[in-house]
């Protein structure tokens, strides 16, 4: 195992710990358990400016190290990439650039 593999595994371990803290290693919408596609999602109405600005890697570390407050954790959940994108589309009023009309 080379250095790159070790780094990937270390990041995956942190991601797994974070998802467990946030409720489990699965998408809370569709149930996907493939850790490669799971992400942290910000629930609608989340207006904590401090959380929004943290870079993603730092956010994962902060959650594992207990730096993230319980209050902030309430506004985070686990979604897969697909469900995360759909979640953003569905609240297009907040992000007009992400409008995605669909043919019936
Ligand atoms: Zn999903």
Q: What secondary-structure arrangement, pairings included, does this model have?
A:
Blueprint: H1 3-21, E1 38-42, H2 49-53, H3 56-64, H4 70-73, E2 76-80, H5 81-90
Antiparallel strand pairs: 1-2
Helix pairs in contact: 1-3
The chain binds zinc ion.
Question: In a few lines, what is going on in this structure?
Answer:
This protein is mainly alpha-helical and 104 residues long.
Q: Can you describe what's shown?
A:
The chain has 104 residues and is mainly alpha-helical. It has one domain. 45% of the residues lie in helices and 10% in strands. The chain has five helices and two strands. It has a two-stranded antiparallel sheet. The model has no long low-confidence stretch (mean pLDDT 85).
Query: What topology, given as strand order, has the largest sheet?
Result: 1-2
- Domains (count): 1
Gap from first CA to last CA:
50 Å
Structural class: mainly alpha
Give the helix tally: 5
Mean pLDDT: 85
Please provide the count of β strands. Answer: 2
Give the helices and strands as they follow along the chain: HEHHHEH
Helix content: 40-55%
Oligomerization state of this entry?
Answer: single chain
Provide the list of bound ligands, each named once. zinc ion
Outline the low-pLDDT stretches. none
Cα Rg: 15 Å
Percentage of residues in strands: 5-15%
Global morphology: globular
Q: Give a short account of the largest sheet.
A: 2 strands, antiparallel
